[in-house]
Design goal:
It is built from five helices and four strands, in the order H-H-E-E-H-E-E-H-H. The protein has about 160 residues and is mainly alpha-helical. It has one domain (about 25-165).
Length: about 160
């Protein structure tokens, strides 16, 4: 049986096997000794408008840096970690065959994420689907109102459990 650790998921930007990647950028540097991402992917993970997914963090105005760093860390974990095997699930999406689901998160990390993002603004609870992509990047769906995170996600648990479905 293949180990659930030290593997890369079958997704859009992942390497087929984890290995050293000496030039990882910024917050992704934690995985430089054994990564599923390339240096280029790690750099793109830090951009406001990245080619990785054409996802715009600033869809309701500029996201504060202290909030954005949590999304960058989340992207680095998703793209670079070779230790997500226990949470890899098959998916039938056009751009990936696998995704991760129900990855445990430390309560303190979730609370800090919520704390740092409570005044950031969004128009959706589930960022995984339902966006208007007609412009090529995610925009709020018609009729969706931009509100502070603390109203969209009243508790840290709601943020961490709902934002990526």
């Amino acid at each position: 049986q293949e180990s659930l650790l030290n593997i890369c998921m079958d997704a859009k930007h992942h390497k087929t096997e984890p290995g050293p990647e000496g030039q990882l950028y910024g917050q992704c540097v934690l995985w430089k000794d054994n990564a599923c991402c390339t240096a280029n992917t790690s750099m793109e993970a830090h951009l406001d408008q990245s080619y990785l997914y054409n996802f715009n963090w600033d869809h309701c105005g500029a996201m504060p840096d202290k909030c954005k760093r949590h999304f960058i860390q989340d992207t680095c974990l998703y793209e670079c970690s070779p230790n997500l095997g226990p949470w890899i699930d098959e998916t039938d999406s056009s751009w990936r065959k696998e995704r991760i689901q129900n990855v445990p998160l430390c309560r303190e990390d979730c609370e800090q994420w919520w704390e740092d993002c409570q005044d950031a603004v969004t128009c959706k609870v589930n960022w995984h689907r339902g966006w208007n992509w007609t412009s090529g990047t995610n925009q709020c769906p018609r009729g969706a109102m931009c509100q502070k995170f603390k109203f969209v996600f009243p508790t840290p648990a709601q943020l961490c459990e709902q934002i990526w479905s």
